[in-house]
TrEMBL record:
It holds the Pfam family Response_reg. It comes from the Bacteria. SUPFAM superfamilies: CheY-like. The modification 4-aspartylphosphate is found at D54. Residues 5-118 form the Response regulatory domain. Gene3D superfamilies: 3.40.50.2300, Winged helix-like DNA-binding domain superfamily/Winged helix DNA-binding domain. This is Response regulator. Keywords: Phosphoprotein. InterPro entries: Bact_response_regulator (IPR050595), CheY-like_superfamily (IPR011006), Sig_transdc_resp-reg_receiver (IPR001789), WH-like_DNA-bd_sf (IPR036388).
Length: 198
C-alpha cells in the first residue's frame, strides 16, 4: 500500500530520477515533472497529497507552481533548493511551505522530511497542530515530533501510529518529554547526515 502520493518537480533530470526512485523505494506513489507547466497539469490530473518543488526552473518557477497548488488545489508543498538567501527564505515563508530543504541533499535526509510532512498534514489533535505551526519558525524547522515519527517510520518501516507509539515508549523509558525525545532523535539524524560522516 502506498504511503501517499507525491508530486516531484525538478528541471535537473538526474536529481528528478534520484528523488523519484528514492521516494518510490520508500513506499510513496511518485508523479514527476521537469518543468512548472507539466507540474500544474499533473497536479490537476492526479491530485497529489504533497509536492516537492525545485525553486529555480526555466519558465514557471517552483514558487509559481506552489502558489497555484495553494490557491486552487490546497496541496501542501515543500521546497528543495540550492539557494538559502534571505529573499528566497522570505518567499518560502510567505507561501507557507511545510519544509525548505537546502541542496545538496541525500535521499536518506529527504525521505524522513517527506514522511514528517505527511504526518503534519494528516488530521491531528488541534492543540498539537497549533503548537507545531508557529509562523515565526523557519519552515526548515519541522515540528520535531513529526520529524522523529518520520525517521522511525522510515528506519523501521512502521505505519505512522506505530512509529508515534514507539517514540512515546522511548520517551517514557528515557524519562524525557515527547518533544525532548523527538529533538534528540532529529539531532542524532542530523549529526549522522553531516558531510564526511561514514
Amino acid at each position: 500500500m502506498s504511503k501517499g502520493k507525491i508530486l516531484v518537480v525538478d528541471d535537473d533530470r538526474l536529481v528528478l530520477a534520484t528523488l523519484s526512485y528514492g521516494l518510490t523505494q520508500a513506499g510513496f506513489e511518485v508523479i514527476d515533472a521537469d518543468n512548472g507547466d507539466d507540474a500544474i497539469l499533473l497536479a490537476r490530473e492526479h491530485r497529489p497529497e504533497l509536492a516537492l518543488l525545485d525553486i529555480r526552473m526555466e519558465g514557471l518557477t517552483g514558487f509559481d507552481v506552489a502558489a497555484y497548488l495553494r490557491e486552487f488545489l490546497q496541496t501542501p508543498f515543500m521546497f528543495l533548493s540550492a539557494f538559502a538567501d534571505e529573499a528566497t527564505v522570505a518567499k518560502v515563508k510567505e507561501l507557507g511551505a511545510v519544509a525548505y530543504l537546502v541542496k545538496p541533499l541525500d535521499i536518506s535526509q529527504i525521505v524522513p522530511a517527506v514522511e514528517a510532512a505527511f504526518a503534519r498534514s494528516a488530521p491531528a489533535p488541534a492543540p498539537a497542530a497549533a503548537a507545531a505551526a508557529s509562523p515565526s519558525e523557519l519552515p526548515t524547522l519541522l515540528d520535531p515530533t513529526a520529524m522523529a515519527v518520520g525517521v522511525l517510520m522510515h528506519r523501521y518501516s512502521l505505519p505512522r501510529d506505530e512509529a508515534l507509539s514507539r517514540l512515546m515508549s522511548l520517551a517514557a523509558a528515557d524519562g524525557h518529554s515527547l518533544p525532548e525525545q523527538a529533538r534528540r532523535i532529529v539531532d542524532a539524524v542530523e549529526l549522522l547526515a553531516r558531510p564526511g560522516q561514514r
